[in-house]
Amino acid sequence: MHQSVRAAALALACAAAVVVTGCASLAPPAPVEPTAGVSVEHYRGRFSVRYEQNGETRNTYGNFDWQQNGENATVQLLDPLGQTQAIVRQSPRSASLELPGKAPLTGPRLEDVMHDALGFALPVGGLRYWLHMQGAPGSQASIERDAQTQRPTRLKQDGWTIDYQAYFDGTPTRVKRIDLSRDLDGSPLAVRLVIDE
Questions:
Q1: Is 57 exposed, middle or buried (0-12, 13-18, 19+ CB in 10 A)?
Q2: CA–CA gap between residue 123 and residue 190 (Å, rounded)
Q3: pLDDT, tens digit (0-9, with 9 covering 90-100), for 97-151
Q4: CB-based burial label for 37 (10 Å; 0-12, 13-18, 19+)
Q5: Using CA atoms, how far apart are residues 128 and 133, in angstroms rounded to an integer?
Q6: pLDDT tens sequence across 49-63
Q7: In sequence order, which residues have a C-beta less than 8 Å from that of residue 103 and are 6 or more positions away?
Q8: Using CA of residue 90, residue 185, residue 139, residue 16, what is the dihedral sign?
Q9: What is the pLDDT of residues 175-191, one digit of tens each?
Q10: How far apart are CA 175 and CA 45, in angstroms?
Q11: 142, β-bridge pairs
């Protein structure tokens, strides 16, 4: 199965939501119904996020289950026990973040919704391209490659450092694990993303 950049991007975008949800859980989202002529993509993976909040280092981790129907995506964030802790929905015109016991937060951009809910935002737009091992359009990017395989080992763009840690075997080349890091407004942020399928 081919990797999806949007799967990873959306999963990361709501990853830190697990920290603020407590013990409550959301009902899983309904399966995405395919649109005529568009196939539904389905991916699963794991994430971990390390960041600072009020001067303290915090960590959150879990799993994600992602479905995409054309430009519309739904990502379910699960805790290590499999309970749904956050649901993100994104379309070309809007985004929403659902947390247990709270009204859904909505807005035109997922980054803004996340920042309003959690106090910081992750590079959703860039991730779409970085998982394809290329820079995002609109700004300069530098890419370092392994001398033998020519696979990217590191990409830098917009203050982010993206380290390519593992690839799936086979062709075409697909990323299995990436580590991202950035010092956001004096607060370090590190993200690890592993795509299982």
A1: exposed
A2: 12
A3: 888 888 889 988 877 887 777 666 667 667 778 888 999 888 999 999 999 999 9
A4: exposed
A5: 9
A6: 888 777 888 888 889
A7: none
A8: negative
A9: 999 999 988 777 788 98
A10: 12
A11: 156
For the chain, give the percent of residues with pLDDT over 70. Answer: 77
Which domains are assigned to the chain? Answer: 5-195 (2.50.20.10)
Mean pLDDT of the chain: 79
Return d(Cα 111, Cα 114) in angstroms, integer: 5
CA 120 – CA 135 distance, rounded (Å): 22
Q: Which residue has the tokens 């939501």?
A: 17
Q: pLDDT at residue 3 above 50? A: no
The first and second tokens of residue 41, run together, are 């993509």
Identity of residue 11: A
Structure tokens at 130: 């970085």
CA distance 19 to 59: 8
Phi, psi of 95 (to 5 degrees): -145, 150
DSSP 105: E
Q: How far apart are CA 10 and CA 86, in angstroms?
A: 11
**Per the structure block, which two tokens stand in for 185?**
């407004």
Q: Closest Cα to residue 6, out of 49, 43, 33, 50?
A: 43
How far is Cα 99 from Cα 17, in angstroms, rounded to an integer? 7
Which of helix, strand or coil describes residue 8? helix
